[in-house]
Amino acid sequence: MDPQSSAAATVVPRETVTLIDNSTDKRVELPLLDGTLGPKVIDIRKLYSLTGLFTYDPGYTSTGSCESKITFIDGDEGILIHRGYPIEDLAEHSDFMEVCYLLLYGELPTAEQKEKFEHDITMHTMLHEQLTYLFRGFRRDAHPMAIMCGVVGALSAFYHDSTDITDPHQRMVASYRLIAKMPTIAAMAYKFSLGQPFIYPRNDLKYAENFLYMIFAVPCEEYTVSPVLARAMDRIFILHADHEQNASTSTVRLAGSSGANPFACIAAGIASLWGPAHGGANEAVLNMLQEIGSKDRISEYIKRAKDRDDPFRLMGFGHRVYKNYDPRAAVMQKVCHEVLDDPSVRDEPLLELAMELERIALEDDYFIKKKLYPNVDFYSGITLRAMGFPTSMFTVLFALARTVGWIAQWKEMIEDSSQKIGRPRQIYTGYAKRPYVPLHQRG
Length: 443
Ligand code: SDX
Hints:
Layout: H1 3-7, E1 13-21, E2 26-33, E3 41-42, H2 47-51, E4 71-74, E5 79-82, E6 85-86, H3 87-93, H4 96-105, H5 111-122, H6 131-135, H7 144-154, H8 168-194, H9 207-216, H10 227-239, H11 247-257, H12 262-273, H13 281-292, H14 298-306, H15 327-341, H16 349-363, H17 365-369, H18 377-386, H19 394-414
Helix pairs in contact: 3-10, 4-19, 7-8, 7-12, 8-9, 8-19, 9-10, 10-15, 10-19, 11-12, 11-19, 12-19, 13-18, 15-18
Residues 59, 243, 246, 277-279, 281, 305, 308, 313-321, 370, 372, 375-377 line the site of s-citryldethia Coenzyme A.
């Protein structure tokens, strides 16, 4: 089937662009596709067959990898919408379970749909009991992201009845299982690092509340989750749920394009998210603030961040797409203040240091010219630490929340009749063909 007709079912080529190869004077017309929002795209799927030419864009700064209806970001305006709804509205008026439904199914649920969705997710929160032995194979001081990668990948060894990606029912069951079990796995990774017993999920608690219960409860006494912290956790999950074709989502899509099972694809996404340039930045922000230590050392670190010969970057600042304030960072800062205003939360001296660092950076020419603003990671770490999480759990929480985005994008790709296995090409700059030299003839 001609990809032109199926993949672009909702994007119709209206105009064309002409590419002229001056080295051969060859000209080729390429369709210009128009989405609902955002830049037009040049459809280059036939470029190689028509011209024998590749394109080259190693960081995908100007390259669209897919058609999607899930999330749109306007980096210049600092806009983020999920299925058309602005992130600010969802963070203010919605909750994470409703956002999960929206991302998966494309519409906000009715009261009945939401109740059934939450019930179904709740019924999947427990882990196969034998998986608890897998945790014991790790060292106690293993980074929880290493445990997440291993355990999530291992889910495909336990849930064989939801690995057939051609079966819509199995795709749905796998999606629900992943959304439901990530909090349980994350909490188990945390408890394992403490040497404390695992706490089972409770069916009478809401998603974020249940997660905090599994993290902070111990078997020896009653534990009640603070409603302020539960609401903050839920909003933090909303802010991290999905974000177009970022590195980890693209990893999930690429892994899924080969037909790999959803558990393996999500494990690949977790691995990609772990990097400090991506989801690992929230942990890196905290480590950076602790290293800076006091306001009088801020200028030293701003200077280092601007020095091209110094690999140090201001963690939590800058973004491939946002050249304006990350709308999630603005909400995150609000949530941070709400958490720190809660009497049950200990004081967080790093907040003042972070706000002073932000103020100085935003007034600095270098950051202004390069349009470097705080991103979602800048305030999330401070908030999570104030909530009682160790730094090593920050990216785990990001992965927990982003699982719904990964699986919604994976589902969209699988259901796209034009999708093919992802197989980028390259520009080769190595040796041309040369004869083999036997060992005894080498210098
Ligand atoms: C996330 O893609 C997503 O959507 C990701 C994410 C999501 O929700 O999935 O939003 C989550 O990953 C947020 C980003 C978290 N990472 C950090 O906070 C790490 C610090 N930020 C940088 O590493 C950087 O800003 C990136 C990786 C986020 C973006 O890098 P780009 O797009 O490749 O930009 P770049 O490196 O080309 O930077 C452009 C210029 C460079 O200077 P020049 O070479 O042009 O002279 O800006 C400079 C960079 O040196 N620069 C910084 C900087 N970020 C960019 N200089 C100092 N401090 C920084 N933080």
